[in-house]
Fold each of these.
Amino acid sequence: MDTTSLRINGARLRATLEEMAKIGATPGGGVERLALSDADRRARDLFVTWLKEMGLEIMIDDMGNIFGKKSGRNNDLPPVMSGSHIDSQPKGGRFDGILGVMGTLETLRTIHEAGLDHERPIVIVDWTNEEGSRFAPAMVGSGVWAGRLERDWVYQRTDVHGNKFGVELEGIGYKGKLPAERWPVHAYYEYHIEQGPVLDRLRTTIGVPKGIVCLHWYDIHLEGTANQVGPTPMEGRNDALCAAAEMILKVNALPAKMGGNMVATVGEIHNAPNSRNIIPDRVHFTVDIRSWDDELAIRAWEDVKRDFESIAEARGCPIRIEETWRVQHTPFDENLVKRVLDNARALGYSSHSMVSGAGHDASYMSQVAPTAMIFVPSIGGRSHVEVEDTRWEDCEAGANVLLHCVIQSALEK
Ligand code: GLV
Ligand code: MN
Ligand code: MN
């Protein structure tokens, strides 16, 4: 069968994305589907319904990863896998993650309708807790599956209310029986919005990442001395929030200080007792450092850690540091990257080679299987926000590139 003229159904892709966007919809036009929340469960249920309609074999592992398998001519061969994540940030967007899952669903529907006889099985996947917003760290579903994170350690991770990951996974009914353990994968594709400004600025349709930057996460806990703000003189205070404030600015200044290509962010802070007339005595904040150069990111951390320790000392606020998570930078498979580029060109779309600054499950997948990603523009470069948006024609274009990449890999003997 000549597949060159095969195209996905853009209207159907849009309809599935719009249907999914109703689950956890926020008043500002985004979605909130935090990992293992009720909204995550409802979106998973709908996803599974759609997989069943196509007659796929459904597998759910003990990390809650959902796989749907479409048989090929030779089911002994390692499958082609494609997918992303259904969970979102708090007040997140309607495209991050879900585009890759629905784009793969649309790819499978197109292949199914065309009656294409492919050699290898094709597996669609929804990875659990890619965001790491409710339960840190991120990408734990793929991380455990790839053998890079310990399942029982992840089960013990807690959200801000002290709820455990393992209990919540069971609670939404998605703790499957199958152990989350990797099996051989012939090729892994992940289709995603760019989440940055590059493609939009260049007015380019398809982004072809050569890999993903490293991601390093840290948790900082500070202790101060609480007291009445009125009678307590300024001298001699141990104000944990002031110590945190100084530290946060050091993080912000880090990329300029270190040089090279790096970003560093404090995005989450918890202050206690959080009363306007009590000197803060407990602060917890997070640090996120990313670079293509792992060594530079580590040197940056060591530098800022020294600053943290001297600020803590000067302010009399004992500090506890957790080195929570590190994922090395990930170069993708050159052949698959070339395939993405070639398909973008063959389909007549403009394309651009780049690096992903956002983390993706493709990071862990790339450590165990040939991997590549396909990006489409984020309007105004905005993501992890309710106004996150991508043109429908770009969603369709990216899915067409995915379709042809998946078909070509699935036809390989
Ligand atoms: C994942 O969403 C990330 O933090 O890049
Ligand atoms: Mn994502
Ligand atoms: Mn995200």
Amino acid sequence: MMRTRPLKVALLGCGVVGSEVARIMTTHADDLAQRIGAPVELAGVAVRRPSKVREGIPADLVTTDATALVKRGDIDVVVEVIGGIEPARTLITTAFEHGASVVSANKALLAQDGAALHAAAEEHGRDLYYEAAVAGAIPLIRPLRESLAGDKVNRVLGIVNGTTNFILDKMDSTGAGYQEALDEATALGYAEADPTADVEGFDAAAKAAILAGIAFHTRVRLDDVYREGMTEVTAADFRSAKEMGCTIKLLAICERAADGGSVTARVHPAMIPLSHPLASVRGAYNAVFVESDAAGQLMFYGPGAGGSPTASAVLGDLVAVCRNRLNGATGPGESAYAALPVSPMGEVVTRYHISLDVADKPGVLAQVATVFAEHGVSIDTVRQQGKDGEASLVVVTHRASDASLSGTVEALRKLDTVRGVASIMRVEGE
Ligand code: HSE
């Protein structure tokens, strides 16, 4: 039966995502009411610039005082789409203190302070939902938190940043260098004027922390995530990848160790075989590949950013939180009971593609091979191309720890016959 008294929603932020949330709330109001069992009413919209014209949003709902809005006491759900750490963190905790549940799209805040926010939600008996924080429209948080709650997830391997996937895809398909591809991404609006958060992997690392925490029922913070950006990937790396039947993607990789006693989370560019489903994720799309004991391999794919796709995820959370509210219940909160240690990058085990510039003379290959052997890194293939007394040597290893590989590279750099280490790239997804 439909309740007539509406559930009141406060919207914090009315940018690209917030304005779409407001639009869908208005245009789909009847459907949302039917699905929830009560109408939902936009009770206030907190913005920074009140003079800006916002189509479809009555001027009397707009305020610059977000704190007063979340403190009103009659708000059922606060939707936070302003991003960043402060004032978002204080506004969310204030919302819980004043009886509201929260839907957030704030990956940076969740990755840094997720545990404290979940604790605040639990203390006040409210919900904290954040499907939109990772990979935009793609249902990922709820599948991991609910659909796979009875399974054991071993690995999450994802392309969770659309800007960098657009750039890498462009480099792959046209042979362009990084800067040229970035310029095109900027011109087309895929990259921001300051692309640092995307190209240096900060955005993906925040998402990796959130995914790892949920997948492994363990607290994983942003600081636990190893991070390398993709600004040093070159056209030559793509040529090498092609020779191996691979492409290069910026991957977020969350793994349970083989013995199950620890987990790792990392973001870096990596070669993946063209046969892997993630290799065919083109343009600015996102995709996440999940491996679990019982389900096996699952892939989630779709638009990972943008106003409308992100609003879709926010609205899904809003419906879920409103339903819980009407039932006098809350959904699943934080599950961190496993409390597995998060191992450092040195303990990650994977394969490596190393490209060296060396002198082309007798004994060099043996010298290089000895360094690998001394560090316990087993070589899978070696390819050499020589020219005028110099050569390029490409070594692909079997699985080895990152610490062993780092030791190997350090020792290689000290050899007189090694002119330089042109590139080191991990090989994943095999
Ligand atoms: N800037 C991100 C991306 C979207 O390019 O995927 C928001 O996380």
Amino acid sequence: MKELIYANFKMNKTFSETKDYLKELDALLVDEPQKICLFLPYTSLYLSKLYKGEKFLFGAQNMFEEESGGYTGEISAPMLADLKVKTVMLGHSDRKKFGETNLQINKKIKTALRYGFEIVLCVGETRAQRNSGKTKIAIEKELGEILFGIYENELKNITIAYEPVWAVGTGKIADSKTISEAVKFIRSTINRLYSETAGKEIKIVYGGSITPQTAREIYKNKNINGVLVGGTSLNAVEFAKLIKA
Ligand code: PEP
């Protein structure tokens, strides 16, 4: 499905470059009803307060679990809420490279929920886990630990992004069968952790090296609610093609 489209800019584009980009993308998408949520670097999130249109939403790429204090360099939920940011991405594999743990992501989710944010939660196996046949064990462990203490009625604020670590930023997209099996497994895990209804209703998107050429195949899968796009989203022309695919 093409219900949810997210873009992750990672550490790219200045505030000025992002403003120019938005003008360009907006013009390319004049007849496109699809809303798009862009996860921007913090320095560009003031756009969330400035933007008066309806096409774009702006999200944060991360957020700290505490609300204030001696956490130099971190960004809090009240800071984001004050900028009218409504969505936060948590648990991205880039963050895990800096040592972010499942326990910390769990705390971040609880804080984000208290502030009423929509959350995009990234999960996915590493190349080593896939090669050793441990994909399911890895995803199940991740979901179990990250969602610990989260109530079923809170899942409506959480979208899961299936992002196999080996496909993110590598140019190696997972094939349709791999994506489809993993998404089914995520639904069945939510089913086990919560209920059949929760497993059916949870929103799941795929992320990892998607291009305009590969997007359409993903939209065709009714079990997948949309996409999370990194590298391709940085070029407005290519991203517009991907959105319209
Ligand atoms: C991402 O950063 O979440 C992502 C999916 O990146 P890319 O599309 O570049 O693999």
